[in-house]
User: Fold these one by one.
Assistant:
Number 1:
Amino acid sequence: MPYALEKDSTRVFEKLLLSEKQAQTRRRSPLLCRTCATLVTYAESEIEVAGSTRHECVNPAGTSFKVVCYDMVIACTPVSLPTEEHTWFAGYAWQIADCGSCGIQLGWRFRSHSHEFYGLIEDQLIAGEPETF
Ligand SMILES: [Zn+2]
């Protein structure tokens, strides 16, 4: 029956649309480099580390950073050798992480033996749509 067939394929198409929509929902809030507007990560990639997704961190020079933890980044590149010296997260070595496009420091990559995440400086990111993707 052509009618039944049509109905079935409509249903399949609706299912495909739905899963596409769900995929978009998971990655719907792009965060860009404040300096060059390159896509850096998504708000949905924020993860909890050491009991919180956000941390107020002070470096040995006394400078304070609002650091947000992400499990995934797109344009963010570690540029220094890993070290555990003065680390903000026990058991994690850190590396300075710069914007992959303009080179400004966005935060740090933190790595333990079994886990890795990025701690990005909140003020260096802005919400918005990337210009090209
Ligand atoms: Zn940039």
Number 2:
Amino acid sequence: MVAAVAANCVVGVDLGGTKVLVGVVDESLGVLHRIQHSSEAADANELLDRVAEMVDEAIEAAPQDVLGVGIGVAGIVDAKAGVIAASPHLPLAGLPFEALMGERLGVPVALDNDGNTSMLAEWRHGAVKGASDAVMLTVGTGIGGGIVANGALVRGSTGGGAELGHMVVEQDGEQCSCGGYGHFEWYASGAAIGRAGERALAAHPDSTLAAAAAEGREITGTLVTEMAHDGDAVCVEAIVEVGTRLGQGMVSITNIFNPQLIVVGGGAIAAGDLLLDPAREIVEHQALASLGANVSIVVAEFGADAGMVGAAVLAFEQLAQR
Ligand SMILES: [Zn+2]
């Protein structure tokens, strides 16, 4: 437990598909220093060196001794073995990442999947604190998952489970970043909001969104979200479309896990209730009756920091056990 370690800091690392976020985190989960860079790299060595440099910088910036480093990685992680089994977005597949980073850094390292670290932050200290059954969806470029069932994180037989973004939701659907087809994250992620915006502007050539596109602005989930908050009806409609798909996935999740809470984090949460209200409505009407009535859909407390802060929680907890 966090409180078991006296007056120390750890470094939390969120190694995502597009960025690396590194933070010095104290025992009350305050973020004392943060560093962010791109995670794009030509090969594994370049990326290992960059992450190690960022962590070294964080260790130097820390006001106290750093006890160790927790890392959450976007990919299939065998946390027991400390190995990244697969990662669609990073050149790290098959690497004993925990040992390699430990050698480079000279401090203890703990490794897990970023969906699990995000859930750890929310479960221990955030929006689903104390829940026995809860599901986290990290809705950004893709969709990450974290599951707590019967009071324990669900990892599966080899640690690769809880990949909720890769549920098949569409027969003969679009190809996913993982190589599969018709997966949930294609239809319900932040990137899906951008794609829904592109379809909406094609259907509404006189819209403000179409005017923005004509000015050369890239139609991203972020832009569509900003314009929706400004009241643009075409953008609101695009977000409602994605929120509806998000809700359909949550219906399956609710029927399978019967959670008390579904917590939503990731960049797409900037859309707020514009995204979540349609999802809530679908779950209320389409999930099995008593299950749909029992589940609350809530926003992550740690926001975009959840993966990094959760990696710090992982470090505190694992290092206290060693
Ligand atoms: Zn997939």
